[in-house]
Each structure stands twice: as C-alpha cells, then as structure tokens.
Amino acid sequence: MTIKFNSLKINTNKNFEIIDITAKINEIIDIDDGIISIFSKHSTSAIVVNENESGLLNDFEFMLNNLISDKFSYDHDRIDNNARSHLMSFLLSSSETLPIKNGKLDLGTWQSVFFIELDGPRNNRTVTLTMVGE
Predict the structure, then answer these.
(1) Average pLDDT along the chain
(2) Number of domains in the chain
(3) Measured at the alpha carbon of residue 41, what is the angle toward residues 39 and 45, in degrees to the nearest 5?
(4) Domain assignment present for 75
(5) By Cβ atoms counted within 10 A, which residue in 6, 10, 77, 132 is the most buried?
C-alpha cells in the first residue's frame, strides 16, 4: 500500500464561484488504483461532486442564496462580516473521498468534482489530496 500527498492552489474571482477541479485532480493522481481524499482547508469553501451543467450550477447558487438570506443580521458578522459564507459551508462538505481506477477518478458519467468558493475573491485557496492505494 502506498500513501501520497499533494495539493492544489486555487484563485477565485467572485464572492460565490463554482470551479470544476476534476481535470486538475486527474493530472495529479499518481497511483493506479485506490482512493483519494479531497479536502479544502478553508471554513468558507466546500468540495462537492455533482453534474457540470450550467443550469444546475445556477440553481445551486440560487438555492443557497435563498436558504441563507442576506436579509438577516447574523451574530458572526460582528467579527468579519462573512456569516453567510460560514453558514453555507455548514450545509456543504469540506471534503470528498472518491475511488481511483486506472490512475483517474472513477466518477459516474455526469459527475465532476467542484471547489465551491463562498467568500471570495481569494488567492491561494488550498485543497489537499491524499491518495491511498497501489
């Protein structure tokens, strides 16, 4: 069994941004078969797996904005005015663990891996990759 570590640095351009990182991850994978943990090291971002279809991605942003409205005053805003970003992150996940087969992510036909920026724009967001396998 082999364990390998790597990371991605991601720069974002908007307050809310969905970035498909599937191809970048596939370029970094250096085991044939196993699993990979994909972890965002930030409390105001997320890692999700879903379909890369523009209407769906727009619907996802619409849903989050309506679940956690900017119409309210949140206690955390007294510290750094980004409570909505943190609350959205609570609903999502900071990581995904996925299978690797033949040196690539073993995703379903329509699945992609996304980095979700919830408090941008930001530079040098870090996503760590831990690969376990052969």
Answers:
(1) 97
(2) 1
(3) 85
(4) no
(5) 10
